[in-house]
Every structure is written in C-alpha cells, then in structure tokens.
Amino acid sequence: MRTLYLAWNAVSIIAIAFFTFCAAKKKTRLSPIVSALCGLAGLCLLFYTAQFFTANKKLALALSALYYVCDLCILGVIYIFVISIVDISNRGKTRSLGAKIFYVFAGLACAFLIANVWTESVFSIKPVLLADGRIDYWKRAFKAPIYIFVGLQLAMVAVILSELLKRAFKLPTFYKSNFTTIAAFFFLVVFLDSVYYFVSLPYELSILLYVFLAGYTFQISFWGINASLLNTMLSLVSENISYAVVCFASRGKCFYLNREARAIFGYGAAGFAAAEGYRDKLLSQYPEKMFGFLTLTQTMQVNSVTRSFDCEYKILKDQKGRSVVSYIKLVDTTAEQKRLEEEKFRAERDLLTGLYNRSAFFKRAAEILRSSKNDEFYLVATDIMDFKLVNNLFGEAEGNEVLKLQAALLSSSAAPNSVYGRLTADKFAALVPKESFDLEATKQNNETLQQSLAKYNYKIQNYTGVYAVADKFENVKMMYDKAAMTIENIRGNMEMSTAFYDSSIMDKQIRDKRVVSEFEDALARGEFVMYLQPQINAADEKIVGAEALVRWIKPEKGIVPPLDFIPVLEKSGLIHKLDQYMWEEAAKKLAEWKAVGRDLYISINISAKDFYYCDVYKFLTSLVEKYQIEPQKLKVEITETVLMQDVNAHKEILRKLNDYGFTIEMDDFGSGYSSLNTLKNVEMNTLKIDMGFLRAASFSQKVKDIISSIISMSKTLGMTVVTEGVETEDQVKFLREASCDIFQGFYFSKPISIEDFEKKYCDGGDK
Known about the structure:
Helix content is 53%, strand content 19%. By secondary structure, it is of the alpha/beta class. Helix 1 packs antiparallel against helix 2 (31-50).
C-alpha cells in the first residue's frame, strides 16, 4: 500500500511539473495563475511525500509545515483563478477587504505553522515504524490552534465554492459544466482533507486528487473553455450571418450546415446529403480546383424558385499541407442580379416600347452581322411623318400608343437573327434576314399604323426605307443612314410608303452636303437673288404687289432650282440665314420703291426653323425701323404646317406682328389637317388658297364649290383672299365670279428678276 501510494505521488509530481512548465510557456492572462496553482500543488505533493523518506523529526516537521503553507496558498490561488477565468473586471475582488483579511490571517497561520517546527504548538508528530524498523509514516497529533487554521481554510473554501457555484448557475452553458466539475473536484479534495484532520488515517488522501485538479484546471484554462467558447462563438456567428456556410471533413463528409445553408439544402441527414452532392457536382465540373480555391456564380432551384449565388469553395490545410476541413460559402445575389438585369435593361432598352435603344441596337446588330457569315440581311428604317403634330393635336398619351403600335408592328415577325430598336422619338430600325423580310407585310403594317388614329379622322403617314447590307463589316450606323436617306427620298409622297436604297440616293446625299458646304460662301458672294412673282388685283388686273422667292444663281452653272437647295437648308438648320437675307432684301426694295413713290407690297415667307433660330418679331420690326418702311407693305406669309409645330408660341409672335402693323397671311390653305381650327385660333389678315385645288385632274364643279365656300367664309371673316397657281383663263373667270381678291400664277407671270419685274410692272407696264 505504501509503495503504491508513493508511486502515485511520484507520477503526480512529474505530471504537475509538466502542467506548470506548459502553463508558464502559454504567455496568456491566465498563465501566471495556472502555473502558480500547479506549482503549489506539486510542492504540496513533494513536501508531503518527502516526509516518508526522512527519520529526522525536525525535518519532518518542517516538511509538514511547508505542506500546510502550500495547501493554504492553493486556496488563495484557486480563489483568484475562479474570479479571473471568466471576467477580467472581477480581478479587482482579489484586492477587496475580504481578500485582504484572508491574506492577513493566512500569513499569520503560515507563521504559526513555520514556528511549529520548534514549538509543536499546532501539531506534533511521531514515527510509525514498519516491521523492519523503517519509518512507515509520521503520525500527526493536532492541537487546539489547528482549528484556527482549519476554520480559515473552511471560510476560504466556502467563498471559493460560492464563487464556483454562482458562475456555474449564472454563466452560459459552455461555462456551466466546467465550473460544476471544478466545484466537484474542489469539494472532494476539501472533504478528504477534512477526513484527514478528524479521522486517524495513515495517509493524506486528498493528495491523490491534486494531479486531477491541476490537470483539469490546465485543460479548461487553455483548451477546454477556449475551445468550447470558440466553437460556440463560431456556431453563433455562422448561424446568424446572412449567407450559407457548409463545412466538410477532410474526406468530404458534411458535418455542419448553418441556418441559411439548411434553408437551401434541407434539414438533418437529407440536408447533409444534398450538400455533399452539391460539392461533388462542383468538383466534377472543376476537377482542377479539388485541392485549391474555387469561386463562381451559379443559379439553383430553392423551393421551386430560381436563385443566384456567389459560390466559394476552399480547402483548409495544416502546416504540413494536409487537408483538414473544407467549406462552401453561398452568398445569395438574387436581388443583386435582378437589379443588375434591370439596370442593363434600362441601359439597353427603350422603356416605352421595350425595343433596344440606339446604341444597343447598333451594337447588337453588328454582333449578328459578324456572326452570321452565310445569311444576307436588310437594314430597315422607319419614320413617322410630322409625328410632333400627333402629340400636339392629341396629347402625349395618344402619341405613346402610336409609338408602341409601331414597335409591335415592326417586331411582329420576330425572325431569328433579327434585332429591333427605337433610335429616337419616332424613328425605328430593324435588322432582319432577307429571307424573313416581307414587303407586303411591311406595307400592311404602314396601313395599319396609318389608321391608328382613325377615330380622330387623322391619318398617319409612315415611311420605311430598306437597305440591302452589302458589307457586313460596314458601320451599322452608316447602314441605317442609308436606309434613312431612302425615306428622305420619298418623304411627302402619299402614294409610296416603302422604298429600297440605291446609289442615286447617295448621290443626292452628296449633292445635299455640297449645298450645305457651299451655302455660307454663296450667301456672302450674293449668289442668292430675290425674284418676284406678281400678285394681281382681281377687279382691274392691276399690279398690287409680289411674293418674294429666292433663286440661287451660280456663276458657272446658272440658276439652281429652289427644290434642290431649300429643303436641304431647312433640314440642316440653315434656312433662317437665307430667310433673314431675303427679308432684308425685300425691305431694301420696299425702301427704294417708297423713295420713288411706288405703292406696292412684298410678301415674305417664314419657315418653321426661323422661330427657333432667331427672334422673328425683333428682326422684322428692326428692318421696318432701319429702312423706314410701312410694316403693312412687308407682308408675312406662314403655312399652317409651320404654325402647328408650336401653335401657342407662334400665335403669340404673330399677334405681336399684327399689332405692330404687319399683314399676316396663311399660305397654302387646305394643305394641312385642321385649317379651319387654325383660323379659329390665330388672327389672320389674308388667306392664300392652296394651288393644289386648282391642279385637280379636272376643274370639276365639286372643286369650284369648295373654292367658292372658302372664299365666302373668308369674306365673312373679313379676310383678303389670294389664290396662287392660277394658270388658265377659265380659272381667272371663275375666281373673279367667286369674289377672289388677288391672283397669282403663271397665267400672269412666273417668278422673275427684280429688273424684269420693274420693267414690266413699274416702268409704264401694268402686267
């Protein structure tokens, strides 16, 4: 028994020495406390065990005293350990009044124990011999002062147990089991120690448990609580993060799914199996990543809903490169992907029609052309004539419905390898394979669009230009421009809505560009000349005035027809410069006539662009003041189409001109869509009947009745009536009978130069 007891003590001393050494090396907050606790436990064992190997009573008393001193110190260190292991802030309790009192009494007790070596006032010892005369052990005989020592121990034990139990019941679960175990060990040690004091036993049994107490203290200080706390913390964190985490053992066995992962893969064994299947699928698709790091974006069906995830798979290895664990992280990007798709849609699509916008159409069309080596294509362009009028007359909502219908008609075939786009307000484009293009369907679509506002008795004229793609690597914008040129070539033709591009259109485009490039210099050189077409009084056929018309006379080529340059200047935004030039030429001529007493007027034309590029009112009134002419002699002609482009703004300018003294004439009456409505809303002095009435196939009675009604209405409104385009004597006779006031047309004279006009009508001539 003695040998076994001593052997256990020897093993315990070695083990505790190891714990002490390891604790000292840890260099943590608890290292000094744990190393002190283990060291004191080891010293207790060492001092107690050493007694068995000495026959010297004084030395045995000294070893016993050191044993009790270390035993008392252990209580103090355990107290510090208990209040320090969880909360650093409680370390202040080691300096509390109660702690200080304990340290004082412990110091006194230690002093008494040391003095006991000589006084034997606390306890005495005597040897118990074996049969062979060797000492078996030293038997202690405790005296009254020992109970002070025992009382001090019990008080400290009570404090320590209360601290342990308080923490065991108040702290989280991962602390509770550890503190309960410590309390149980400590209570057992104290119980066995008490038995030794009050029951005569040859050996101190509590010594047997010191190694367990030291070992467990070491374990929970550096492994147990830290590992438990870390695992619990990681579990809590991973459970509450917003992305899915799946953990696998080194051989690919799933052992953990957090809350988000369980929502994706399922619960229990089925969830683990589904996660393992997902991992295996990843690694089969990307085998080269099996031993590394993989990131990708994937879609998955979760509860019958397609969701997008950013997936990360990583294998964690130890210092020797061995796989320890692997994980999959899945971040749900469904909302982000949806937002990106919406942004991409808004970036590429026209929000009204859903078709591609301008830049996206050109890009997508180029991609199709480059990738379709064997197919032939048409680039189709469409344009709604005077679409702005639709918005002005019927409102933006109706205009939007027209645009959506146009988009639907254009893309109705939805042929493979085709793309459709809305490039600007009313301009659309399509790239379609030749084999899918249906000319008759295109014409039918134009007719359908034409009737879309039939409830308003208004017809839309839609034009389609088609360009056969010759070079697939040509800039798509250039292709569209060619298709759009085709539209310009047929614009205004009510009988033809679709045309194909040919080289003559490009020739015309080149001529138009030449007009634009030469215009400024030609204007400065005076190549633009004012011609006059006389206006004749219907009553006596005397000259009363003229309309100013422009002619471009090139020195090397002669006269350029107005239709070859006026539409080009209107389209390019240069017409206002020519108009201002002509207005001033007319004002100059009126000033000359006024100086020689010629009582004639000149009518000038205002185009739509003039209102946007200059202050018409200010410019015309400044001419009157500059040349000192009567404003009623400089008559202002404006077509209904021009007026309707911004009726409210234009109406106000015309009212101011009228108030100033200018005569306002509505030109080409009847060519617009709501002439009577215009007369109702805008103050006019003179009405010029559209010559188109007089160019009917036959000058029928129906035509005569219409013209008579217009003239009669004008008289009722107090307006002067001018009829232009008069070409025959029968027309003159009829118009005079219908009470027309003024004639203008080839029957009397074509537009002529100022020199010829003055010779014929001012220098003794009258017509």
